[in-house]
Amino acid sequence: MPVDAEQAWRDLQRIRVPQERVYDEFEHSVSGGRGTTYGTAALMWVFLAGVGMDLPRWGVGLFVAAYVGLLALLVGRSSRRSRMRLHHTRCPGRMWAALGATAVLVGGTIVLAGHLTESLEPIYAGPVQATAAVTVYLLSLGPANRVAADSVRRGGESAADEEAGR
After folding, report:
1. d(CA 74, CA 41)
2. Distant-in-sequence contacts of 9-16, Cβ < 8 A, 24+ apart
Protein backbone atom coordinates (compact mmCIF):
# COMPACT_ATOMS: atom_id res chain seq x y z
CA MET A 1 0.00 0.00 0.00
CA PRO A 2 1.65 3.31 -1.07
CA VAL A 3 2.03 6.05 1.51
CA ASP A 4 1.58 9.67 0.55
CA ALA A 5 4.61 11.49 1.99
CA GLU A 6 2.85 14.85 2.20
CA GLN A 7 -0.13 13.38 4.02
CA ALA A 8 2.18 11.55 6.42
CA TRP A 9 4.04 14.82 7.11
CA ARG A 10 0.77 16.69 7.78
CA ASP A 11 -0.37 13.93 10.12
CA LEU A 12 2.92 14.06 11.99
CA GLN A 13 2.68 17.85 12.40
CA ARG A 14 -0.91 17.57 13.58
CA ILE A 15 0.29 15.20 16.32
CA ARG A 16 3.42 17.18 17.27
CA VAL A 17 1.75 20.59 17.81
CA PRO A 18 -0.44 19.46 20.75
CA GLN A 19 2.50 17.43 22.05
CA GLU A 20 4.67 20.56 22.07
CA ARG A 21 1.97 22.41 24.00
CA VAL A 22 2.00 19.64 26.61
CA TYR A 23 5.78 19.93 26.98
CA ASP A 24 5.59 23.73 27.18
CA GLU A 25 3.00 23.43 29.94
CA PHE A 26 5.20 20.87 31.71
CA GLU A 27 8.16 23.27 31.59
CA HIS A 28 5.95 25.97 33.08
CA SER A 29 4.67 23.69 35.83
CA VAL A 30 8.16 22.40 36.72
CA SER A 31 9.26 25.85 37.80
CA GLY A 32 6.29 26.13 40.17
CA GLY A 33 6.29 29.89 39.85
CA ARG A 34 8.17 32.53 41.79
CA GLY A 35 6.01 32.22 44.88
CA THR A 36 6.81 28.55 45.34
CA THR A 37 10.51 29.03 44.59
CA TYR A 38 10.99 31.95 46.97
CA GLY A 39 8.69 30.39 49.58
CA THR A 40 10.81 27.24 49.57
CA ALA A 41 14.00 29.31 49.73
CA ALA A 42 12.70 31.39 52.66
CA LEU A 43 11.60 28.27 54.49
CA MET A 44 15.02 26.69 53.89
CA TRP A 45 16.76 29.83 55.18
CA VAL A 46 14.72 29.95 58.39
CA PHE A 47 15.30 26.22 58.96
CA LEU A 48 19.06 26.34 58.39
CA ALA A 49 19.50 29.54 60.41
CA GLY A 50 17.48 28.07 63.28
CA VAL A 51 19.24 24.70 63.30
CA GLY A 52 22.61 26.48 63.22
CA MET A 53 21.92 28.18 66.56
CA ASP A 54 22.92 25.21 68.77
CA LEU A 55 19.40 24.27 69.81
CA PRO A 56 18.77 21.44 72.28
CA ARG A 57 17.83 18.06 70.82
CA TRP A 58 14.11 18.60 71.31
CA GLY A 59 14.41 22.03 69.65
CA VAL A 60 16.05 20.51 66.58
CA GLY A 61 13.34 17.84 66.45
CA LEU A 62 10.64 20.49 66.70
CA PHE A 63 12.35 22.55 64.01
CA VAL A 64 12.62 19.54 61.67
CA ALA A 65 8.95 18.64 62.22
CA ALA A 66 7.85 22.23 61.54
CA TYR A 67 10.07 22.43 58.44
CA VAL A 68 8.76 19.18 56.98
CA GLY A 69 5.16 20.15 57.77
CA LEU A 70 5.44 23.60 56.20
CA LEU A 71 7.28 22.21 53.18
CA ALA A 72 4.54 19.60 52.69
CA LEU A 73 1.93 22.37 52.98
CA LEU A 74 3.78 24.44 50.36
CA VAL A 75 4.07 21.48 47.99
CA GLY A 76 0.43 20.57 48.49
CA ARG A 77 -0.70 24.11 47.77
CA SER A 78 1.52 24.31 44.71
CA SER A 79 0.33 20.98 43.29
CA ARG A 80 -3.32 21.90 43.82
CA ARG A 81 -2.80 25.08 41.78
CA SER A 82 -1.08 23.21 38.96
CA ARG A 83 -3.15 23.10 35.80
CA MET A 84 -1.48 20.00 34.50
CA ARG A 85 -1.24 16.45 35.73
CA LEU A 86 0.98 14.02 33.88
CA HIS A 87 0.02 10.48 34.80
CA HIS A 88 2.71 8.59 32.91
CA THR A 89 5.62 10.97 32.65
CA ARG A 90 8.90 9.17 32.33
CA CYS A 91 11.59 10.34 34.72
CA PRO A 92 14.79 9.73 32.79
CA GLY A 93 18.18 9.36 34.41
CA ARG A 94 19.16 12.85 33.31
CA MET A 95 16.32 14.28 35.39
CA TRP A 96 17.39 12.34 38.49
CA ALA A 97 21.02 13.35 37.85
CA ALA A 98 20.03 17.04 37.80
CA LEU A 99 18.11 16.64 41.05
CA GLY A 100 20.99 14.73 42.65
CA ALA A 101 23.58 17.27 41.49
CA THR A 102 21.54 20.12 42.95
CA ALA A 103 21.14 18.26 46.25
CA VAL A 104 24.88 17.50 46.42
CA LEU A 105 25.74 21.11 45.56
CA VAL A 106 23.44 22.57 48.23
CA GLY A 107 24.46 19.92 50.79
CA GLY A 108 28.13 20.56 50.08
CA THR A 109 27.57 24.28 50.52
CA ILE A 110 25.92 23.67 53.90
CA VAL A 111 28.85 21.51 55.07
CA LEU A 112 31.50 23.88 53.71
CA ALA A 113 29.80 26.96 55.17
CA GLY A 114 29.51 25.12 58.49
CA HIS A 115 33.24 24.45 58.54
CA LEU A 116 34.09 28.01 57.52
CA THR A 117 31.84 29.54 60.19
CA GLU A 118 32.91 27.31 63.10
CA SER A 119 34.87 30.15 64.68
CA LEU A 120 31.83 32.46 64.69
CA GLU A 121 29.21 32.60 67.39
CA PRO A 122 26.17 30.41 66.56
CA ILE A 123 23.98 33.51 66.33
CA TYR A 124 26.09 34.66 63.34
CA ALA A 125 27.16 31.30 61.91
CA GLY A 126 23.59 30.05 61.31
CA PRO A 127 22.45 32.96 59.14
CA VAL A 128 25.73 32.97 57.16
CA GLN A 129 25.44 29.23 56.48
CA ALA A 130 21.75 29.60 55.58
CA THR A 131 22.40 32.52 53.23
CA ALA A 132 25.17 30.64 51.40
CA ALA A 133 23.04 27.50 51.00
CA VAL A 134 19.92 29.35 49.83
CA THR A 135 21.97 31.37 47.34
CA VAL A 136 23.39 28.18 45.82
CA TYR A 137 19.89 26.66 45.81
CA LEU A 138 18.39 29.60 43.94
CA LEU A 139 21.28 29.76 41.46
CA SER A 140 21.17 26.04 40.69
CA LEU A 141 17.38 25.71 40.57
CA GLY A 142 16.90 27.34 37.16
CA PRO A 143 19.40 25.12 35.29
CA ALA A 144 18.14 22.01 37.11
CA ASN A 145 14.54 22.79 36.10
CA ARG A 146 15.59 23.32 32.49
CA VAL A 147 17.48 20.01 32.45
CA ALA A 148 14.47 18.21 33.97
CA ALA A 149 12.01 19.71 31.49
CA ASP A 150 14.36 19.14 28.55
CA SER A 151 14.90 15.50 29.51
CA VAL A 152 11.13 14.89 29.64
CA ARG A 153 10.70 16.68 26.31
CA ARG A 154 13.44 14.57 24.70
CA GLY A 155 12.01 11.40 26.18
CA GLY A 156 8.63 12.21 24.63
CA GLU A 157 10.17 13.09 21.28
CA SER A 158 11.96 9.77 21.06
CA ALA A 159 8.73 7.96 21.92
CA ALA A 160 6.90 9.97 19.23
CA ASP A 161 9.65 9.21 16.72
CA GLU A 162 9.33 5.50 17.52
CA GLU A 163 5.56 5.72 16.98
CA ALA A 164 6.08 7.54 13.65
CA GLY A 165 8.60 4.91 12.57
CA ARG A 166 6.11 2.06 12.93
Report:
1. 11
2. 12/164, 15/160, 16/160
